[in-house]
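Design job #97: recover the sequence.
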């Protein structure tokens, strides 16, 4: 039996309790890296090899067995190796001889190296703690969702973040995800379900950005990132994360708006104006609009204003013209600063005659209202070119070019006036 135990890599020890000596097998010595003759057989020295943090525990457990309070001695602890490192070991033993008074005389036992097991257990414990912390502490909701081929779905696991993300509890989604679907903003539900169906059908990652309407927070943005797996019965299982991307989406919208804003005039810039005008032209082509007029506006003698009063005064003139446009034009009219002292206006559902009346009113208002820079009143006028947008135009920019030619005609005719494109109605 001793040979069998030695062959398993387990060491044997034999302690004489009366003399305080202990003998070790070759395998026991090899666990700690010793050769025979390099280690003391005194029990006091054996306790010195025990890690200081484990020593009291080992001695107490040993004494309990000596005193008959336990049937066997069994303890996990650390022993110092020859090189100074420590190994985790499992020591088991039993008193095999006692005197008539029951005092322990002889004890034998085994020691097995369990360092790898302890390290694996520690790594598993750390991984478990890490997952638990990530699940409950990181912003968002970690989930496992299962969906049958018939479409019924439920959350088989959700983190505590479901309260923050959807204003729900794990119990609310344990049998059905309908309560989540009810939170989705109506305009986004079709897109949400289409992305979910595609992920289930094609086993592709499920990625979706959508809005939810929460009772306490109102409209918020959410993003789902999850990966699907097909189960043997045909159901689909997703593991993923839902995060709050409201701040990011609002910032992106602000950046989008800023990229299309002329900061001096407060009007849309050339890029934004052209985009909206192209949509208007598409509406005309598709017969959603019956007529559209376009105006190009230019401040007369703007260079002279800059030369006389300075560029800061010129900036004030630009702001003044933009303000006058906003006060005269309708709220659904499309306006923009095209650059320098040029502005453009797109008038949906407005014919040429009405566009002429609107343009002349704007021209008169600007001519009769002075721009103020510090204490200086600056008088100014504008010239305006007008053209009709037609379904036969190649694009929106074609009519803008026609309005620009009409603007040039107004300037050639003496400024402070309007002119119509020659090929417009």
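Job complete. Output follows.
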């Amino acid at each position: 039996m001793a040979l069998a135990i030695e062959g398993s890599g387990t060491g044997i020890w034999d302690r004489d309790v009366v003399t305080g000596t202990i003998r070790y097998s070759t395998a026991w010595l090899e666990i700690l890296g010793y050769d025979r003759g390099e280690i003391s057989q005194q029990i006091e020295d054996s306790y010195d090899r025990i890690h200081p943090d484990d020593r009291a525990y080992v001695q107490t457990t040993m004494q309990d067995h000596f005193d008959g309070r336990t049937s066997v001695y069994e303890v996990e602890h650390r022993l110092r190796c020859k090189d100074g490192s420590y190994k985790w070991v499992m020591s088991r033993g039993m008193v095999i001889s006692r005197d008539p008074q029951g005092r322990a005389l002889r004890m034998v036992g085994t020691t097995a190296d369990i360092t790898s097991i302890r390290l694996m257990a520690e790594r598993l414990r750390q991984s478990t703690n890490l997952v638990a912390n990530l699940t409950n502490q990181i912003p968002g909701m970690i989930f496992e969702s299962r969906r049958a081929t018939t479409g019924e779905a439920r959350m088989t696991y959700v983190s505590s973040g479901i309260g923050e993300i959807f204003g729900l509890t794990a119990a609310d989604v344990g049998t059905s995800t309908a309560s989540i679907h009810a939170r989705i903003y109506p305009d986004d539900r079709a897109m949400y379900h289409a992305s979910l169906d595609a992920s289930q059908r094609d086993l592709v990652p499920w990625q979706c950005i959508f809005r939810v309407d929460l009772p306490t927070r109102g409209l918020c943005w959410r993003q789902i990132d999850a990966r699907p797996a097909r189960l043997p019965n045909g159901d689909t299982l997703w593991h993923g994360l839902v995060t709050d991307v409201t701040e990011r989406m609002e910032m992106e919208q602000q950046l989008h708006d800023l990229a299309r804003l002329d900061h001096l005039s407060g009007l849309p810039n050339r890029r934004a104006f052209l985009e909206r005008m192209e949509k208007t032209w598409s509406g005309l082509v598709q017969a959603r609009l019956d007529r559209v007029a376009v105006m190009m506006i230019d401040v007369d003698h703007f260079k002279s204003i800059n030369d006389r009063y300075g560029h800061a005064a010129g900036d004030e003139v630009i702001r003044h013209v933009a303000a006058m446009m906003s006060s005269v034009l309708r709220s659904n009219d499309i306006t923009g600063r095209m650059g320098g002292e040029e502005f453009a206006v797109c008038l949906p559902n407005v014919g040429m005659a009405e566009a002429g009346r609107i343009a002349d009113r704007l021209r008169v208002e600007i001519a009769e209202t002075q721009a103020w820079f510090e204490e200086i009143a600056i008088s100014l006028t504008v010239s305006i070119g007008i053209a009709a947008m037609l379904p036969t135009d190649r694009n929106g920019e074609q009519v803008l070019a026609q309005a620009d030619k009409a603007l040039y005609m107004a300037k050639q005719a003496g400024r402070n006036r309007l002119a119509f494109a020659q090929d417009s109605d």
